[in-house]
Amino acid sequence: MTDAYIIDAVRTPVAKGKSSGAYADIHPVDLHAHALRAIVERTGIDPGQIDDVISGAVAQIGEQSGDTARWAALAAGYPESVPGVTVDRQCGSSQQAVHFAAQGVKAGAYEIAVASGVESMSRIPIGSQSVGRDWRGPAVGARYGDALVPQGISAELIADRWGLSRRSLDEFAAESHRRAAAAWSAGRFDAEVAPITGLRTDETIRPESTPESLAALRLAFRTDDWAARFPDLDWKVTAGNSSPVNDGSAAVLVASEAATNRLGLTPRARMVATAVVGDDPVLMLTGIIPATRKVLARAGLRIEDIDAFEVNEAFASVVLAWQAETGADLAKVNVNGGAIAIGHPLGGSGARLTTTLLGVLEQTGGRYGLQVMCEAGGQANAMIVERL
Questions:
Q1: Which CATH architecture has domain 271-387?
Q2: CA distance 124 to 65
Q3: Contact of 75 with 57, CB cutoff 8 Å
Q4: What average pLDDT does the segment 305-326 reach?
């Protein structure tokens, strides 16, 4: 089995997923195509040599339906011979695309593949694909009854189970903004971003955020109904210690050693191991804990061997619970800030994290990087890369 190498990765700046956001007038296919075009321009590869475009998108409805990967490849100017497929593993969709691309290369099914992702939350609001529909089905309802809850409630339950204070959540969120703002100021994001429509930086970073200012925000998910159902819950989750809604896209070029040598490409990293797990669908967002353990075991590494972590900041409570269970050094986690500051364009976030992880490893001289994402339904993806 051959190794799989990451040749390069690129992302758009992340925009607000609102009508006032920078990408609100851009069709998601065109937003996606921008990243696909940029990855070809950066690597100099002939797009006709790409065996497949594997992309993530969560709200596969309306303008983001009908296999957006195929249409984005055509919109990017790729030859008609290049196929595309769109996957949905919820927030981990484009990380799953990276996994599939690497697995295809290792298996010999691909020599060159693009893994990418997109989400336009300004044009396709969150949850659009399931509004008015029983998307779980009666059998799941019979198995779990009314135990299943929305993600925001899961984030609250996680904070409660791990004894996380409101102050700790707000401190984590403020630090995410501080790190992201510092990374932009120092030019650490410049190399990974392909600007579009005049937007050159991420639109939701608030460097003025402090634990004190965040403490003034109201609770995001406490309603009378939920409070009655969980009367002993000490509610803590706000918009300030959660990820915002966003638009964005990203792309990663993965190739075999033979293709790398033949085309004179210089890889940035080697894919070491991947893992995916299922976990409790009620707590829902805790899968990153067993996923981290599983991918470390597959790689034959310890948590101490990892030089940089990218852990998706869906909610501050999720990352802090993960840290408490794994013992990871928070100084190595989301070094350039995370999704609470940079943003979380759902289907595009996995490839965005990969793009940022490569940059952090190169900036710090680290060898191994670990990326992990929680996902709706109680799943998680994890992968380890080695900087070359």
A1: 3-Layer(aba) Sandwich (3.40)
A2: 10
A3: no
A4: 98
- Residue 177 designated active-site: no
> What is the reported pTM?
0.97
Domain ranges of the chain: 271-387
Tell me what the mean pLDDT of segment 103-109 comes to.
98
* Residue 136 confidence class, pLDDT cut points 50, 70, 90: confident
Catalytic position from the list 34, 99, 177, 374: 374
Please tell me the predicted confidence (pLDDT) of residue 324: 98
Three-class DSSP labels, the chain: CCCEEEEEEEECCCEECCCCCCCCCCCHHHHHHHHHHHHHHHHCCCHHHCCEEEEECCCCCHHHCCCHHHHHHHHCCCCCCCCEEEECECECHHHHHHHHHHHHHHHCCCCEEEEEEEEECCCCCCCHHHCCCCCCCHHHHHHHCCCCCCHHHHHHHHHHHCCCCHHHHHHHHHHHHHHHHHHHHCCCCHHHECCECCECCCCCCCCCCCHHHHHCCCECCCCHHHHHHCCCCCCCCECCCECCCEEEEEEEEEEEHHHHHHHCCCCCEEEEEEEEEECCCCCCCCCHHHHHHHHHHHHCCCHHHCCEEEECCCEHHHHHHHHHHHCCCHHHECCCCCHHHHCCCHHHHHHHHHHHHHHHHHHHCCCEEEEEEEECCCEEEEEEEEEC
Note the pLDDT of residue 103: 98
Among residues 34, 91, 99, 177, the one annotated as catalytic is: 91
